[in-house]
Each structure stands twice: as C-alpha cells, then as structure tokens.
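Long-time lurker. I teach an intro course on protein structure, and each term I like to show students one example going from raw sequence to a predicted 3D structure in token notation. This year I'd like something fresh instead of my usual example. Would anyone be willing to generate the tokens for the chain below so I can use it in lecture? Attribution to the forum is fine with me.
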Amino acid sequence: MKIKILLPTQILLEEPAAKINAEAENGAFGILPNHIDFVTALVPSILSFVTPQGQENFLAVDQGILVKCGNQVLISTRQAIRGNNLETLQQTVETEFKKLNEKQKMARSAAAKLEISFMRGLVKVGSANSEAPT
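-- Reply from a regular --
Happy to contribute to a lecture. Here you go:
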C-alpha cells in the first residue's frame, strides 16, 4: 500500500508501506495492506509506518483525517514532523513547537492591534456622526 501525508502547503511524503500504526480518538490502531476501507479522525500523536524493506519510520502528527481507500492511505493534517527515531523526533517536535508558539503569539498580537485600530475608527466615526447637526 502507499501512504501519503498531506499538509496545507505541501506533500510531506508519499511512500510504500507494509504496515501503518496511528491513533484516533477511540484509540490506537494498525493498518495492513488488505485492511477494510475506512475514514477516521486522528489525534495529535506519533504515527509510524514500516516500509516493505522493514524499516520503521516515525512522524509526529497534529490532529487530522486518515482515509484508507484501496491500496492508498491518505492523511491530511495541519502539521507533521518526520524523524528517524523517537529520541530525535521528540527534540525536533519540541524545537518546532517553540517556534510555532512564538509565531502564534506574534500573530495574536498583530490581530489584537488591528482590532483596536478598527474599534478606534468606529468610535471616531460614531463621535463625528453624533456631533453633526440634525
């Protein structure tokens, strides 16, 4: 079967897989090539897959959707980070999440400033209208 990880801006990976392990809201599960087709919501977790040569690969995935259809397993998620082993993956995830948290803080701050500017503009318009002669 083939696993394909889709992020909002790119295809993270598209590779053959002999086995896939993931986690949904109701628990962990495994998929083999002849598994029945299904769709499930993934929770933030570690996803692993084994290549046909027997190499195990790991990905930290954010919440998302997994679709198993025929020999294709499509996973759509906002974020995923690939690692060769669990130790380096944990370090990478921590580093990336710290960067993401900083970006989110900056975005929230910019949005708050825009909101304040918008509200001030509304107050000025309202004041100008109330001062106009009737």
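Some talking points for your students: The two ends are 75 Å apart (CA to CA). The mean pLDDT is 83.
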